[in-house]
């Protein structure tokens, strides 16, 4: 019969790489861990590890078993939390977001999570989209919120919303034409987000698909820096429209209407589907409910 001790052994062998390390982590012996795996294979009739290879390498069916095992371990944790109605499960969420999310609805999201999941500790990390995706692939974060620019079979992407962007510049830099062709922008200094920016990658891919190549004066990975440089009159850039509309209302920036207009940038909540994901998927649901890139510093 399959039991949680066997599934836990499978989880930690794969996570730590060897039977010996799993045994140390679970405070038992290597022979005990080996016995659990043998019993699991006997109960299922499946060969979970490739014994022709050195090290603890899962077979293809073993990898499928691991995904199910981790789901069962997560469910077991949730059942335990219901034992007496007052038991609080201590959880940690490693959350990665871009600068735009941190500037807008991250405080509101964390407040909701802490309220909905007593005992939760949130470790929020603000970084560029490419870096966050790499950290998710390396299992250094649990969930990231970035533009939809990266995909992988082991990643589940939950659509959040579309963020409308607009070309902006300091008043007077371009004059007052009603509509500017994209080629016309090439006459002005262009400030763009760097290659690690999800929005930058999305816009550059769109421009490339249209056969448009705009010259660059300055590239920066910092959204805040791009705003400051644009307000200072150093060039034209694209910014999330509603988030920075107050700067337009204050007369510090002006919107440049272009033909064709910029496409909206899709944002996603992403997490690994080959790890215990019941709790993280619930976090993604909260993100869908709360995402709002239109106003800064929401709480």
Tags for this model:
42% helix; 5-stranded mixed beta sheet; 19% strand; 3-stranded antiparallel beta sheet; D-Maltodextrin-Binding Protein, domain 2; Arc Repressor Mutant, subunit A; 299 residues; alpha/beta; elongated; single chain
Task: Characterise this structure.
The protein is α/β, with parallel strands linked by helices. The chain has 12 helices and 12 strands. The protein folds into 3 domains: 4-81, Arc Repressor Mutant, subunit A (Orthogonal Bundle); 91-162 and 266-290, D-Maltodextrin-Binding Protein, domain 2 (3-Layer(aba) Sandwich), CATH 3.40.190; 165-263, Periplasmic binding protein-like II (D-Maltodextrin-Binding Protein, domain 2). The protein has helices spanning 4-16, 19-25, 30-44, 60-81, 99-103, 106-116, 129-137, 182-185, 198-209, 223-231, 245-249, 278-290, and strands at 91-97, 120-126, 143-147, 155-163, 165-169, 180-181, 191-193, 218-220, 237-240, 254-256, 258-259, 265-272. The chain has a 5-stranded mixed sheet, sandwiched between helices. It has a 3-stranded antiparallel sheet with strand order 9-5-10. It has a two-stranded parallel sheet with strand order 6-11. The model has no long low-confidence stretch (mean pLDDT 87).
């Amino acid at each position: 019969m399959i039991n949680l001790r066997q599934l836990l052994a499978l989880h930690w062998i794969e996570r730590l790489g060897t039977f010996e390390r799993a045994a140390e982590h679970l405070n038992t012996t290597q022979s005990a861990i080996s016995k659990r795996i043998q019993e699991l294979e006997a109960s299922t009739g499946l060969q979970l590890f490739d014994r022709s290879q050195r090290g603890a390498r899962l077979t293809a069916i073993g990898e499928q078993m691991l995904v199910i095992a981790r789901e069962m371990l997560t469910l077991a944790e949730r059942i335990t939390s219901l034992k007496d109605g007052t038991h609080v499960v201590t959880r940690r969420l490693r959350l990665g977001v871009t600068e735009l999310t941190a500037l807008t609805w991250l405080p509101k999201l964390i407040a909701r999570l802490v309220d909905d999941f007593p005992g939760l500790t949130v470790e929020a990390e603000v970084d560029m989209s490419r870096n966050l995706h790499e950290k998710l692939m390396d299992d250094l974060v649990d969930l990231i919120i970035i533009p939809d620019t990266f995909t992988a079979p082991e990643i589940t992407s939950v659509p959040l919303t579309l963020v409308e962007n607009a070309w902006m510049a300091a008043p007077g830099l371009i004059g007052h034409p009603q509509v500017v062709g994209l080629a016309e922008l090439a006459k002005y200094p262009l400030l763009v987000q760097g290659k690690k920016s999800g929005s930058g990658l999305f816009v550059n891919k769109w421009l490339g698909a249209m056969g448009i190549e705009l010259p660059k004066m300055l590239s920066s990975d910092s959204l805040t820096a791009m705003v400051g440089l644009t307000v200072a009159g150093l060039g034209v850039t694209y910014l999330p429209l509603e988030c920075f509309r107050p700067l337009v209302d204050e007369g510090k920036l002006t919107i440049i209407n272009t033909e064709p207009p910029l496409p909206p940038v899709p944002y996603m909540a992403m997490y690994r589907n080959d790890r215990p994901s019941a709790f993280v998927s619930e976090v993604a649901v909260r993100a869908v409910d709360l995402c709002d890139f239109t106003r800064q510093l929401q709480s």
